[in-house]
TrEMBL record:
GO molecular function list: DNA-binding transcription factor activity; transcription cis-regulatory region binding
InterPro entries registered for this protein in UniProt: LysR_HTH_N (IPR000847), LysR_subst-bd (IPR005119), WH-like_DNA-bd_sf (IPR036388), WH_DNA-bd_sf (IPR036390)
Keyword Metal-binding: no
Keywords of the record: DNA-binding, Transcription, Transcription regulation
Listed name of the protein: LysR family transcriptional regulator
SUPFAM superfamilies given in the database record: Periplasmic binding protein-like II, Winged helix' DNA-binding domain
Taxonomic path: Bacteria, Pseudomonadati, Pseudomonadota, Betaproteobacteria, Burkholderiales
């Protein structure tokens, strides 16, 4: 009986457990509740015991059902990975490589990777989207690219696989004429909040209504990191910048590093990851590009 078990049954089992009811699982899978119930009853007959308690208003996993749930997830994930790998091998070398890159990623490292890519794949055009926050992920979710390099968005979207690449140090800076430049650190959040904070805004709607590392009630939002850099040097506010972008300014005195109490949800930098949809991994050129970024 167990040999007749199908991935469809396992997917239905997982959906019912995650959604908390057979009707909700049916909506997620776009099936009638009766089909979900029948599928699960057949699965229970095959394994030889009940997976759900049906005595209450909502079905609850039995102890045995809970024990099998993670195995079911592993089986489905394994088959998804198998199909994704097979699709990649069948497609062969990509006719074009499209990559979305976080604006915080070190430009020298990116440039070196692009130069090496051009030598390795001279006939494969490269298209880059350089964005911040959710706008880095949006081309991936929309199917316009197969790889995204994220860092300013501090979370991995659902349905994506992730690989760590490198860490990028970030520092809070102001112009030497700015009032915060005269204060010895650590500067309390309340004091920093009295001054205009320059922050990047998201060109997408993925982070609508959310803020990352914003401490001030007075914020100027810019969609371009270069504009933020220029505004900081002009003394129009304070803000965080990747260290590699402002090292020359700090040495020349055009910008001053300030020590602000670390925000509970803001680390000292950005953790860069390469992500892709689990069912759409990069092809040979994309895989090579990610590996090159990781090695450098």
């Amino acid at each position: 009986m167990l040999d007749a078990m199908s991935l469809d049954q396992l997917r239905t089992f997982i959906a019912a457990a995650d959604e908390g009811s057979f009707s909700a699982a049916g909506r997620k899978l776009r099936r009638a509740q009766s089909v979900v119930s029948t599928t699960l009853a057949n699965l229970e007959a095959q394994v030889g015991f009940a997976l759900f308690e049906r005595t209450g208003r909502y079905p609850r996993l039995t102890e045995a059902g809970a024990a099998l749930l993670e195995q079911a997830r592993a089986a489905v994930d394994g088959m998804n990975a198998f199909k994704a790998k097979a699709r990649t091998l069948a497609e062969g070398l990509e006719p074009e490589l499209a990559v979305a890159v976080d604006v915080m990623f070190p430009i020298a490292t990116l440039t070196a990777a692009v130069q090496a890519f051009q030598q390795q794949f001279p006939a494969t055009p490269l298209r880059l989207y350089v964005e911040a926050l959710g706008a880095v992920v949006q081309p991936l979710l929309d199917g316009h690219c197969r790889v995204a390099i994220i860092g300013s968005l501090p979370e991995i979207p659902a349905g994506c696989a992730s690989e760590f690449l490198l860490s990028v140090a970030a520092v809070a800076v102001v112009a030497p004429t700015h009032p915060l430049a005269a204060l010895a650190g650590p500067i309390p959040h309340e004091e920093a909040g009295k001054h205009v904070q320059l922050v990047l805004t998201d060109r997408s709607t993925l982070t609508a209504g959310r803020n990352f590392g914003v401490m001030s009630t007075q914020t100027w939002r810019l969609a371009d990191l270069g504009a933020k850099h220029a505004f900081l040097k002009a003394g129009l506010g304070w803000g965080y910048m990747p260290l590699h972008m402002v090292e020359d300014d700090l040495r020349s005195g055009k910008l001053v590093r300030i020590d602000i109490e670390l925000h509970a949800r803001l680390g000292p930098g950005f953790s860069m990851h390469a992500i892709h949809m689990k069912d759409q991994p990069p092809g040979p050129a994309g895989r090579w590009f990610v590996n090159h970024l990781k090695q450098n």
